Amino acid sequence: MSATEPVVFHNALAELCGISSPIFLAGMAAISGPKLVSAVSNAGGMGIVGGLRAAPRLLRRWISETRDQTDKPFGVNLVPQFGGPDVFEAQFHVILKERPPLLSLFYAEAYPEMISRAKDAGLKVMVQVGTVGLAKEAVARGADIIVAQGSEAGGHMNRGTIALSALVPAILEVAGHRPVIAAGGITNRDDVRIALAMGATGVLVGTAFVATHESNAHDLYKQKIVDATADDTERRVGYSFGWTYGTPHRVIPNKDRWNVLKHIGGGARAIDAPRLARKLSLYAGQGVGKVAGVMSAADRFAELAAGLPHVTASSAQQVDFQMARARAMEMLTGLRQTAPDIASS
Ligand SMILES: Cc1cc2nc3c(=O)[nH]c(=O)nc-3n(C[C@H](O)[C@H](O)[C@H](O)COP(=O)(O)O)c2cc1C
What we know:
The protein is an alpha/beta fold. The chain contains 14 helices and 13 strands. Helix content is about 40%, strand content about 15%. The termini are far apart. The model is unreliable at about 310-325 and about 340-345 (pLDDT under 50). Bound molecules: flavin mononucleotide. The site of flavin mononucleotide has 31 residues, from strand 7, strand 9 and helix 9.
């Protein structure tokens, strides 16, 4: 499929977010900037700005630069655990002022009121979690979309001990009518097919988009992803730039024997010195072995979109089995609560 051929898979998630295909770019700190975000949104998916390391002024600039490059919906990712309450409140003010269509939250459990504050301002709120308990909490607090983050995922994980194949069905059980997005190790059309077959309504992709021309990653980092095999990532709980010590994360470890910086998990940016990029252990998911080259974000998107059921806009309403399944599960949950015997018979 060519990058220009439009793919439309207009399911409940796509409808909720106003996008053509339910493929989401992970909001990756420093890596997902305006160029990459707008490229994914222009391709028909949901680009998400990585807001984590961005001071309020930079965040505002990135939102404005994204708007200059696309008129399609996009989101912003924030991680309140990183930086603490004051930094987060300042970033959140930018969000309330700029009102991107989607707020993506990660490690936000200690800030429950953020979901309702963002929703009151008209934003859709997506929360990424790696356990059923955290998913239940996000649902109770009003999240519109849950991202099931499997232990395959690159970067930080919340909590990253459950594989996607076990996590997606378990989170579907507690998500009610809310769309559940699969994240972790998804790099190509086959992965997308598998994720949808498990019941996910869409996918969120990080590592495979790091290895695109538009990402802010250092060239050495992109090449390391291309060169890596499935054996080459490691789940760690040591130090990673700015995060609370012990927060799990997945990296391609730097194996240099005498290099002290190899203990630091990071995401080297194009603006970092090559010396630093060469010495860090770099964030990446278990799908690295399937990333064969650096390409444009539109080509990466087209590859992923080839795994979606290929439908035209006019036949879209016939394929929304994901929405029907979610509704059926919600009815069943209601029945279980009111008439346990009937529902289980
Ligand atoms: C380089 C990199 C940076 C990341 N930064 C963030 C971040 O700032 N906020 C966040 O919510 N998730 C972040 N993640 C995790 C992603 O949201 C997502 O769970 C992960 O990329 C999915 O797995 P995959 O990398 O195998 O596609 C990051 C992932 C990577 C690879």
